[in-house]
Amino acid sequence: MGAGFSGLALTSLLGADGFFAKHAHAHALGQAASNPLTPRRPSYSGKAKSCIFLMMNGGPSQVDTFDYKPELQKYAGKSLPQDKKYINSGGRKIGYLTPNWRPFAPGGQSGLLVSDYFPNVRRHADKLAVVKSCQADSHAHVSALVGMNTGSTFIGRPSIGSWCVYGLGAENQSLPGYVVMLDKRGGPISGQPNWSSGFMPSTFQQLCLSEGVMKG
Question: Which of 100, 124, 162, 180 is most buried, by CB atoms within 10 Å?
């Protein structure tokens, strides 16, 4: 305190709140300089206060869980049609089409089709929102995973978390806008590009925690 170090802490706190910027630029700008992490109003109001996004590398296939595709029965064991092309797949050989392995049944008033993998989940079908419009142009795990988390199979795009922070800001100015927690058995096989800020500034980068860090 006597050496004045408490003033450094006070200066940092005031600067983070825009105190100095507000006074220094009041005449030139008429308002405080913007902070890229300042919370912003969303385009549409929602009830959710936070989001946990589970990206389960190696989970069960969508065609055996919530995405019933009866046409696959007709093409079972056949090759992919020639007009269906994949990119960025590393030259891997494409396998054969397979049908749904599990029977499906409608659930709730919505009639959402759910396989018998999840009979209890089917009972709560009206509480679920299942998006079936997602698709990828790669059949290789590495690039398809990157596409799932960034919207592109090519490495270098911002992740979904970075886009959220870019558009909505963060309520806590002392911590990253979002946090990635890796499974102790190993993260996504394509690694860091799945949660990178890509071509965005590092302001929108995440805090990545491994199990060792979390235990520490």
Answer: 162
